[in-house]
Write a structure and sequence with these properties.
A hairpin with a 2-residue loop joins strand 1 and strand 2. Helix 7 packs antiparallel against helix 8. It is globular, with a radius of gyration of 22 Å. It has two domains: about 200 residues, Rhomboid-like (Rhomboid-like fold), CATH 1.20.1540.10; about 50 residues, no CATH class. The chain is mainly alpha-helical. The strands form two sheets. The chain has a two-stranded antiparallel sheet. A two-stranded antiparallel ribbon has the order 3-4.
């Protein structure tokens, strides 16, 4: 399933297996699945203590200088959650692939590293006052879904509910759950990850719909304004001319310097024009 076209000239496979391309998202899924299987064998044969060295523990990071835990925690997957882990990997593969297609390989890697490291670095600082622990990658991959919802907010997902509403419902529900049980560190982790994902794709010039949060207030404005509405034929022809006039300079810039030369605002303008052309063709 493809939700959009690749607007990055950096969307290239890392390698090929026969005729099949392997992208960064595919490698991440393979790494997480392999670590989950290895963890199951370690626990089955009495090696579970090794997983404790990989899981994040702020006390060990600060006192024993186990700095690797800032990153390795994400690859510690308890066998008790295998069903949820399978769902998580499926969502990573589906939505992560679309985010990688939009951002490009290098930017997607940067986003993933930020989601991996920044929250636990802040939790390590939090650990100076209160000990915190963390394992698994659920929050990281939920943030990847938030990034997808920021890029394609109007895509219909479960029960034909748009992605932006699914993301908001999940964030709100999980936040209420953590708030009810006073799990402040996990609540902080959730919102840091969501903010990182949303902010990153915004800075990378995601689609025109990224302004939907700020546009809510516009829905309450008075609409009792008189205006002259042109005929449908005139409006369609003028819209088409305006679209092509607006993207001609961008296409010329891409042909000379590549799509990577576009600024964030130019990427948004190009995506707006692409969406309008698709809607007109439908």
């Amino acid at each position: 399933m493809m939700f959009g076209t690749a607007i990055s000239d950096d969307y290239e496979p890392v390698t090929w297996v026969g005729r099949y391309p392997v992208y960064v998202t595919t490698l991440l899924v393979i790494m997480h699945v392999a670590s989950m299987i290895l963890g199951c064998f370690l626990i089955a044969f009495g090696g579970g203590a090794f997983l404790n060295l990989l899981a994040f523990d702020s006390a060990q990071v600060i006192s024993n200088l186990h700095f690797w835990q800032i990153a390795t925690y994400a690859f510690v997957h308890p066998p008790s959650n295998i069903i949820w882990f399978a769902i998580e990997m499926y969502m990573l593969f589906v939505f992560g692939r679309e985010v990688e297609r939009f951002l490009g390989r290098r930017a997607f890697i940067v986003l993933y590293l930020l989601l991996l490291i920044v929250p636990t670095m802040l939790l390590a600082i939090w650990g100076l006052w209160q000990r915190t622990g963390l394992d698994g990658s659920a929050t990281i991959h939920f943030a990847i879904f938030v990034a997808f919802a920021a890029i394609y907010p109007n895509v219909e997902l479960f029960l034909r509910v748009m992605a932006k509403w699914v993301a908001l419902i999940f964030v709100a529900a999980y936040s209420l759950q953590l708030l009810a049980y006073h799990r402040w560190s996990e609540l902080t982790l959730l919102w840091i990850s969501v903010a990182l994902a949303y902010g990153f794709v915004n800075l990378r010039g995601a689609g025109r719909e990224l302004g939907w949060l700020s546009d809510w207030t516009g829905q309450w404005r008075s609409k009792r304004v008189l205006r002259v509405v042109p005929s449908p034929e005139t409006r369609r022809s003028s819209e088409s001319e305006n679209i092509y006039e607006s993207i001609d300079p961008l296409l010329e810039k891409i042909s000379k310097s590549g799509i990577g030369s576009l600024t964030a605002s130019e990427r948004r303008a190009l995506d707006r024009a692409r969406t309008r052309l698709i809607n007109k063709s439908e």
